[in-house]
Design goal:
Length: 123
């Protein structure tokens, strides 16, 4: 018999393959976020992605000051400075989360950056 899950799991923006957000026991899990504008450079894609993060966290009762962990996936580490420029403009001083940045082959060649976030909800 499987162990019961303590508390319900709430999912937002549920699709046939994935949910954009899952919330469980006060923790918000976001799916990897990518830019819709795949022709943009790494800086602009990162800014767009972080806008998606802001929106989804807000819908889940959280914000960027409550991020517990961030993973950034880059198509090419040559984009690291431009991704960091957008990140540094976005992140709140004093609330910089633990973060890992990894070079990875992403789902489509035009995607330059993907960001995955875990955050706490407001108490």
């Amino acid at each position: 018999m499987a162990n019961p899950v303590p508390g319900p799991v709430k999912r937002l923006h549920v699709g046939p393959r994935l949910s954009e957000t899952a919330i469980h026991n006060g923790v918000v899990y976001l799916a990897g976020q990518i830019a819709e504008n795949e022709t943009a450079n790494a800086y602009d894609q990162t800014r767009e992605v972080l806008g998606h993060v802001d929106r989804l966290l807000g819908e889940a009762g959280s914000d960027k000051t409550l991020i517990l962990s961030a993973q950034v996936f880059l198509k090419d580490m040559a984009d690291y400075p431009e991704m960091n420029r957008a990140w540094d403009e976005w992140v709140m001083p004093g609330h910089t989360p633990p973060r890992a940045t990894i070079e990875a082959r992403l789902a489509r060649p035009a995607i330059r950056v993907e960001v995955k976030i875990i955050a706490a909800q407001y108490t």
